[in-house]
Specification:
With about 525 residues, this protein is of the alpha+beta class. The chain has three domains: about 240 residues, Nucleotidyltransferase, domain 5 (2-Layer Sandwich); about 200 residues, 2-Layer Sandwich (Nucleotidyltransferase, domain 5), CATH 3.30.420.40; about 70 residues, Roll (SH3 type barrels). The protein has twelve helices and 23 strands.
Length: about 525
């Protein structure tokens, strides 16, 4: 981790429904918030991380910076007037892929490793080859090989955001929303794995972090607006009334019709969280310590209790040690911390027009550092020859480590523990009976495999590219459609008497009936 003194950084978090800005200044070892601002965006200005109305967004960002206040609520006289900012690329536009390679497939030269990872990303990330930009890191070395994590983003999208900020006289450095949010909650690393559940307006992101940083991430295409729309449909009321009833009642009153509607919509999300937890724990061999909820959707009344009782994990609302209110400014704080150099080792970092990577292969991180920073190493080697400076550096490092240990423990202690008393509300306990049980299907639907870039299509063990391939099917072949989940269909395939079930991507199929 880098340390800087008397420097400033501004984090800008632009979501589909809000703009949040935070200015941090580094004074000694302790960053301090000097100003923060927030503006609510109307629908249609930004949609799933894509700018739709540039003038309206520019106006909102200027307002957030101009009217920024200090932490005690007083307007800062000059607002925030940055030349450089750190901007969080939205989760809905970032594709995360984790995979493993045996040692026999690892290139002998580290400089060829990036090309191998880029080829893997092109196969699994749904972006055109010319539009794909990646950042990757080596998660861990094993006896069998290397585990990787790669993030992909659109070059055109990043260029569009860069141009937008340039039109306002700002130079933008990019960060990843998920990583910045975690950094805003835990300025230091955590000892045990935790899952961040970001309940956004249009999507929900699940991300697992441990002492090495981000380990796994996936985004579900369901957010708070889907819950509101379900109330609109069921009760035949307008959107504002449905939103008000959803926020007022939540899932605390089993006698309410709202309770039943929301629980039906939340059940698949809860199941996806459980599937993700099981997958991560099996893959990593480590247990997840607890869940922290962020995003506007996390304010749904009864949601932490619902997840806590169904998943048997400590669950609570996330907050930053820099502000008193939960949830607000988490990402913007994390972005500003990144601008001050408070990044974890080998973090994924997106840069416009450049592929980035870290933790390369067989060389230790020390050898990699020496290779990339030889001049700097020689300079510091000369400096540390002074006995007085060596003693000071040792004492300073001990103080920093003590501060970090205290911060880590305080952050972990803030996660609420599961209640020791039984839950009196049985309606919040997971039911083994689906809300749709008893709705019989009388017609067997089929689908046809369409043309693919490879001439064949992988059938996977689960609905996502993180699941292993269990077979292949070919264009023109027709199979029974068993189930649908997100952007995936489950089919029955194979020879007669040896049939199997698996999942294929919707984009390469055509429904027949």
């Amino acid at each position: 981790m880098k340390f800087s003194f008397f420097s400033r950084a501004v984090g800008v978090d632009i979501a589909d429904r809000s703009v949040e800005v935070v200015e941090l200044r580094q004074r000694g070892r302790s960053p301090q918030i000097t100003a923060l601002g927030r503006v609510v965006l109307p629908a249609g200005v930004v949609e799933r991380g894509v700018i739709k109305d540039r003038p309206a967004l520019a106006l909102a960002l200027r307002e957030a910076l101009r009217d920024a206040k200090t932490t005690d609520g007083q307007k800062k006289s000059a607002g925030i007037a940055p030349h450089q900012i750190v901007f969080g690329l939205p989760d809905s536009q970032i594709y995360i892929h984790s995979f493993s390679k045996p040692w026999i497939q690892i290139p002998p030269k580290d400089e060829d490793l990036g090309a191998m990872i880029l080829a893997e990303a092109r196969e699994h990330i749904p972006l055109e080859e010319s539009d794909l930009l990646i950042s990757y890191k080596v998660l861990q070395r094993t006896e069998m090989g290397l585990d990787f994590l790669v993030a992909g983003a659109s070059r055109r999208l990043m260029a569009d955001w860069s141009n937008f900020f340039a039109e306002l006289g700002l130079t933008a450095e990019f960060d990843l929303e998920t990583i910045a949010t975690f950094r805003g909650i835990f300025p230091e690393s955590v000892e045990r794995p935790v899952m961040i559940v970001d309940c956004g307006a249009v999507a929900t992101t699940l991300a697992v972090f441990d002492r090495s940083g981000l380990r796994y991430s996936r985004t579900l295409p369901t957010g708070g607006e889907a819950l509101t729309k379900a109330v609109v449909t069921a009760l035949k009321v307008d959107y504002d009334v449905a939103e008000e009833k959803k926020n007022e009642i939540g899932i605390l009153d089993p006698e309410s019709q709202i309770f039943t509607i929301l629980l039906r919509e939340l059940a698949p999300v809860k199941d996806e969280i459980k599937t993700t937890i099981d997958y991560y724990e099996k893959w990593s061999g480590h247990k997840i310590h607890g869940l922290l909820l962020t995003g506007g959707g996390s304010q749904l009344r009864g949601l932490p209790e619902y997840l806590r009782s169904n998943l048997d994990l400590p669950s609570g609302i996330a907050r930053s040690p820099f502000v008193k209110q939960p949830i607000v400014y988490l990402e913007a704080i994390g972005l500003a911390l990144g601008g001050l150099g408070k990044r974890g080792a080998d973090e994924l970092t997106m840069r416009a027009g450049v592929h980035t990577g870290s933790g390369l292969g067989r060389r230790s991180s020390l050898r990699q550092y020496l290779s990339n920073n030889l001049g700097l190493v020689i300079f510091f080697a000369i400096i540390v020859l002074g006995a007085g400076l060596l003693v000071w550096a040792f004492q300073y490092r001990r103080a920093v480590e003590a501060d970090q240990a205290t911060a880590r423990q305080a952050a972990l202690d803030a996660i609420p523990v599961a209640p020791a008393v039984p839950i009196d509300n049985p309606a919040l306990v997971a039911s083994t009976t689906s809300p749709l049980a008893g709705q019989a299907t009388t017609t067997v639907r089929t689908l046809e495999i369409s043309e693919t870039p490879t001439g064949w299509l992988n059938v996977r063990s689960g609905p996502g590219t993180v699941f292993v391939s269990v077979g292949r099917v070919n264009p023109g072949e027709v199979y029974p459609l068993l189930a649908e989940e997100g952007e995936w269909y489950r089919i029955k395939f194979g020879n007669e008497g040896q049939t199997k079930e698996g999942w294929v991507a919707k984009q390469y199929t055509i429904i027949k009936n």
